[in-house]
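Narrative of accomplishments. A recurring question from our advisory board has been how the design workflow behaves on a single, concrete structure rather than in aggregate. To address it, we present the structure tokens for one chain from the evaluation set, followed by the sequence designed for it. No filtering or post-editing was applied between the two.
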């Protein structure tokens, strides 16, 4: 049997690190999967160490400052060159944020299946992504843990049998913080995630629930469900990753330890399941509790629902403004509460009503939203 060829984008990040462990497990009894390409942002030492271990020589680094003979491509388009010039069957996209969009689309254009951990691809350009996949026959398999759960729960189920998707949220670092302390919350506080070990941006997005907002938009796009058919429930243990509710009133759930290796492995082996040592649960320790997210604590969540209801380009604006606001929060320019305030102010400006049909339009709205969010932050700073 020929091994399946894999490119891992964002190979030195959290998804990349988990992917290597998954591949070691899947290749225990022979080389089912072969890594043929790797990319990173700037951590070239780690990239080269992994490339050496797995015998990979198609390497790219997005940081234009990287100049090393072993790294074939560097700079803004490095990842696109890697995808264009490497033959592969599956691309794992673990790039953080909006820079993940173009590589996702390029992989699908080349007919490569996409194991997608980069939710921004779906939020910014879901319709374009699906159209590209349809044209080339490539598949998109979600790796985001909630969407991986939903994907497998919905697999083989008729759409008209499904009443509602219920996405769980850990509640992030500030689930129990008194609201009056919010104006004084700092970066270190936001980075203390209770259950998942992830990158900085997504951990802050978890505290604000912007991450869940993006995931609601992602679910809307991936599974073709309306705003009223998607709910979010706080579940601090992060053991149930999602539910579906069927029209007879039953709930079906997917449970496992909070470990990204399970969704990654299931995306790679789909439609099969393979043995894994990851994520087993013991009933001796199983505690499941659920509560509703309060809008006053998590204003980013209702804002995300607004972007689905108005459709048009607002999901792109939501994501771009949040990226700028989180950067400003991390550099100490705005307080934690300034994130939602910036996103709301940016969304409430004048925007076209059309959903963009090309990547160029998508990126132009993205950049306009970045500029507008930046201007809002600068004006806010002048006032204070
Ligand atoms: Mg998630």
């Amino acid at each position: 049997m020929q091994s399946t060829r894999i490119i891992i984008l964002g190979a030195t990040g959290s998804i990349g690190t988990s992917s290597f462990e998954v591949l070691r497990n899947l290749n225990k009894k022979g080389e089912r999967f072969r890594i043929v390409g790797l990319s990173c942002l700037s951590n070239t030492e780690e990239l080269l160490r992994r490339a050496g271990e797995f015998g990979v020589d198609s390497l790219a680094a997005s940081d234009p400052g990287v100049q090393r003979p072993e790294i074939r491509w560097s700079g803004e388009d490095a990842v696109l060159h890697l995808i264009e010039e490497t033959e592969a069957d599956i691309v794992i996209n673990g790039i953080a944020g909006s820079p993940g969009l173009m590589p996702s689309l390029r992989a699908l254009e080349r007919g490569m299946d996409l194991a997608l951990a980069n939710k921004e691809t779906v939020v910014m350009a879901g319709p374009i992504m699906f159209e590209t996949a349809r044209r080339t026959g490539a598949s998109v398999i979600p790796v985001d843990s909630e969407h991986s759960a939903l994907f497998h729960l919905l697999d083989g189920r008729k759409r008209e049998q499904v009443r509602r998707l219920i996405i769980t949220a850990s509640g992030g670092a500030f689930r129990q913080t008194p609201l009056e302390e919010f104006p004084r919350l700092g970066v270190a506080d936001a980075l203390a995630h209770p259950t998942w070990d992830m990158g900085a941006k997504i951990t802050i997005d978890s505290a604000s629930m912007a991450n869940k907002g993006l995931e609601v938009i992602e679910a809307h796009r991936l599974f073709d469900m309306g705003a009223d058919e998607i709910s979010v429930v706080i579940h601090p243990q992060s053991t149930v990753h999602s539910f579906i509710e069927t029209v007879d009133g039953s709930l079906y759930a997917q449970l496992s330890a909070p470990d990204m290796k399970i969704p990654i492995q299931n995306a790679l082996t789909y439609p099969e399941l393979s043995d894994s040592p990851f994520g087993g649960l013991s009933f001796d320790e199983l505690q499941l509790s659920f509560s509703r997210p309060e809008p006053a604590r998590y204003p980013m969540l209702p804002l995300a629902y607004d972007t689905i209801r108005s459709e048009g380009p607002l999901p792109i604006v939501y994501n771009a403004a949040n990226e700028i606001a989180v950067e400003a929060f991390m550099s100490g320019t705005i307080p934690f509460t300034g994130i939602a305030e910036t996103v709301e102010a940016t969304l409430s400006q004048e925007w076209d009503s059309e959903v963009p049909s090309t990547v160029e339009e998508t990126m132009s709205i993205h950049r306009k939203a970045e500029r507008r969010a930046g201007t809002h932050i600068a004006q806010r700073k002048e006032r204070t």
